[in-house]
Amino acid sequence: MGQRGEPGRVQAYDGELGAAVARAQEGDETAFAIAYRLVQPGLLGYLRGLVGNDAEDVASDAWLEIARDLRRFRGDGAGFRGWTATIARHRALDHLRRQKTRPQLAALEQDLLDLPGPHSTHDQALETLSTEAALALVRGLPRDQAEAVLLRVVVGLDGPAAARVLGKRPGAVRTATYRGLKRLARQLGVDGVTDDAPRTLGEST
To answer: Residues 165, 157: contact at Cβ < 8 Å?
Structure first.
């Protein structure tokens, strides 16, 4: 989902992302576009999990702030993903306070309609089915578990980075992620779920 169905690949982009961010901080607009392209899919998936159909509007607000404060950012590619997720989360929470609505995790299912893939129709159907089942269960997770899973799986953050975004201790986020993924796995009859192993909702099921 986050990276067009391949969130496990997000870490592979961190070197390119870090270089693009450094150039963008010097005023290179093309480099900023590259950073946007690498970060936006996961960020938009995360926001869809929080604000549903309003995700693109919230993402636009977040990117305005990201562009405004870009020169103040210090860190590498992975750090940039965490920094942008923090900004996006703040904008999402502001939006929710204005709308006085609960997060709409169900909206993540829209991502499934756009999943490309080189696999056969049969394999693709099985993969989509397993992901749909997992997403249906994510909607029933407690808020802390659902958001931890979204940050780890959709945005691709590691435990400490997700903890910084949520303003919690890494152990608390690790526990929430583990419990959320374990609950998903248990309900789908899959064993062996750990906090470090899963990198997509499909894989975690």
So the answer is: yes
pLDDT digit string, tens, across residues 20-51: 999 999 999 999 999 999 999 889 888 887 88
Nearest to 145 by CA among 175, 187, 105, 186: 175
Read off the pTM. Answer: 0.69
pLDDT for 191: 55
Closest to 154 (Cα-Cα) out of 16, 40, 65? 40
Mean pLDDT of the chain: 76
In this prediction, residue 197 carries a pLDDT of 39
